[in-house]
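> Could you send the TM2 domain-containing protein prediction when you get a chance?

Sure thing. Input:
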Amino acid sequence: MSTEYGSVNPTDEEAPLLHTQVEPQTCWEKIKTKLHLHGHRVLISWIIILSVTAVLTLSFHFALKGHHHSAPPADGDDLILECVSDRSWFIATILAIFVGPFGIDRFYLGYIGWGIVKLLTAGLGGILWVVDIILILLNVLPDHNGCILH
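Output:
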């Protein structure tokens, strides 16, 4: 098969050029392509973030564990009795970090309504998840009876 100079091969016309004949992708297709190419990096980053959060939580818990003991007040008038929950601060923290978007931490503390809200909305898009982690870490969020976590 001999072709003359300047003639066009019919099979070359059907092959798409590099970027001129490729159909444009939608935004969602671009995201899917990037996740397909870099999905393992996203997963590894997520595992690293969760691990660092768990290590910081554990070190924070054990660093403050010895500081909770204080001397009782001198006179009985200043004595304020606070109830202490049977639910653990440590378990609530671990639940909030790892399964918080599903509301498991709120179910554990007895807040069934908020647990359902977090379950249906994935922690309000992650916002309530982060807020709950901070509230539980600072031991500001009591259980459903209003008692502080032990």
